Amino acid sequence: MEPGPPSDRTQVKRHPERGAYDRDTIDAVLDEALICHVAYVVDGRPTIIPTIHARAGDTLYIHGSQASRTIRALRAGTAVCVEVTLLDGLVLARSTPKHSMNYRSVVIYGVAREVTDPKEKFQAQNAVVEHVVPGRLADARLPSDKELQETAILAISLDEASAKVRTGPPKDDEDDYGLPVWAGVLPLRTVPGEPDPDPRLPDGIEPPGYVTDYRRGSRNP
After folding, report:
1. What are the φ and ψ backbone dihedral angles of 33, each rounded to 5 degrees?
2. Stated pTM of the model
3. Which of 48, 179, 201, 209 is 20 to 30 A from 117 in CA distance terms?
4. What does the domain layout of the chain look like in residue ranges?
5. pLDDT in tens, the chain (221 residues)
6. SS3 138
7. What residues form DSSP beta bridges with 19?
């Protein structure tokens, strides 16, 4: 039996057949996405910001500066909603109302917890780096104590999360299938370009394999 939604607000109500509540689906989207959006309400005003994230087990970590207004608001225990979307393709139907997109998305509800334990904060900071560029930790200098103090890390439990996924071709009205109009899916992917070296890079340092062979995709839990 497929798992159900963990709460009423995570239940997918519009196109419920696209809802997914298993952690494999949720984790795969979070692990592939590079940017999440964090929404919250402070002083009666809605706010949403993009930021870097990383998943470690059952926790989503988000990264920011100690001076960030968002960090200051969320460390006080404000309720948050985090959203991530991966766009997989443009769905071109025979009629404009049936056009759509193929996508994978995740929504998380919870309360942010500021990470203050030095060990957890160090591990979370490293998780963010590895999430963005797997393999980078082996080369780059690790953060100093001062740099860790200047960085804020917030943790959000994945206990209340759901995914929504659309795949497949367009779903036209039966009468439209005979129209002489091309229909189908235009796939979209995140594709890296050629590495652009820092002008101050010393001669003889070549880009490592994790740069030249960079790909976005799921990783193991």
Report:
1. -70, 145
2. 0.91
3. 48
4. 8-168
5. 567 788 899 999 999 999 999 999 999 999 999 999 999 998 888 999 999 999 999 999 998 777 677 777 787 778 999 999 999 999 999 999 999 999 999 999 999 999 999 999 999 999 999 999 999 999 999 988 898 888 889 999 999 999 999 999 999 999 999 999 999 999 999 999 999 999 999 999 999 999 999 998 755 44
6. helix
7. 164
